[in-house]
Amino acid sequence: MSCSSSSGSSEEDEGFDSYRKGGYHAVRIADTFASGRYIAQRKLGWGQFSTVWLAYDTQSERYVALKIQKSAPEFAQSALHEIEVLSAITNGDPTNSKCVVRLIDHFKHVGPNGQHWCMVLEFLGDNILRLIRYNRYKGLEINKVREICKCVLTGLDYLHRELRLLHTDLKPENILLLSTINSSKDPIKSGTAPILEKPEGVSNGSATMSAIEKRLKQRARRAVATISTKRGGFVSAPKPPRCLDGIDMNCKIVDFGNACWESKKIAEEIQTRQYRAPEVILQSGYSFASDMWSFACTAFELATGEMMFAPKGTQGFSEDEDHLALMMELLGKMPRKIAIGGRRSKDYFDRHGDLKRIRRLKYCALDRLLVDKFKLSNTDARELAEFLSPILDFAPEKRPTAQQCLQHPWLNIKNPDS
Ligand code: ATP
Ligand code: MG
Hints:
Helix content: 25-40%
Structural class: alpha+beta
CATH architecture of the largest domain: Orthogonal Bundle
Low-confidence stretches: 1-10
Shape: globular
Number of helices: 12
CATH superfamily of the largest domain: Transferase(Phosphotransferase) domain 1
Oligomer: single chain
Mean pLDDT: 91
Order of helices and strands: EEEEHEEHHEEHEEHHHHHHHH
Bound molecules: adenosine-5'-triphosphate, magnesium ion
Largest sheet: 6 strands, antiparallel
Number of domains: 2
Strand content: 5-15%
Strand order of the largest sheet: 1-2-3-4-6-5
CATH class of the largest domain: Mainly Alpha
Distance between the termini: 42 Å
């Protein structure tokens, strides 16, 4: 139960195949939980382990996020672990200033697919991946990148230094804005009244049914798009850039399903592929510095709209090898000692510390890439590269801590253009 894949990363649905015994719990709008305390409003998102719903808390008269775990024993166990971690996080942050999601309540819910652990979390807005997508995969303005980085580093510093906790799955999907991108979707800002009873006429409209309908519609839309491109070679005009002014960039770290205490590591392989640190691939031991690597990959993605490393693993070599090659093309050759120092090093490197199967690397320094490919100004590129490069040191012990990063001048530069 260690590494999550790209769950929820597409805007596809969770798929109704997993709505079975041991799987997700099907929710209908206005379903109640915890003896009527929480009322389901609409689905907010989903992951490999759970679906997450906007719910109305009738006791506090506030909106909350209800994370409903799949029911099979391994998911239940992982929920209990997440509850333990979230409790520590919430108890250690009484002033709510650490940029980490808060746990409000938890309970067990029995449904046709089994017993589901449920976590009641404070309701947050859209995840950062949605923000990148909303911005049409263009890099965010550098000042906005800075604001998000400050929050994420504040959260990491708290987790690492005060709790001795590793997140192990930091990525844009697991960073949530405090409010929604589209304020009409924010139940608080838009002032919509909570749904307290089943909407009339749809008492049978289950979440599963609407998932099927939605998928069919999606397919139809895709088919139409394919036909129109094939027919006329019709190319739509580029869409104008979107304005992000007015969107609050304050955010929090979420998803502690894979988090672990520094003193009690469980999984060998951690992190989602693209955000995985070299020491995790080579199995030379991971720690807080591995979260820092994922942080740097995330910051790069915010500034460019593209993943820093997107290994494919084709042409006779594995995804791991491709990944290591991509890292070296951007960051320079890996020092021999590090390259050959992991339990899996022999699979990829020869005794000189050269990749066995991928020979010709095309080096391109980070600041150059930011200018040439992503069109950052020379100054923005140089400053961002200066901030990120130390965090992308191949030697984990040389990477700055979150606390040290928070002191970096880059976080306090005021860019007059933006
Ligand atoms: P994973 O497969 O990544 O392990 P998961 O099943 O553990 O996922 P989360 O990552 O915690 O689930 O949540 C899935 C999605 O639900 C998030 O990406 C986000 O869109 C939404 N979500 C989660 N928590 C909240 C919250 N507190 N407020 C609003 N939306 C949330
Ligand atoms: Mg997640």
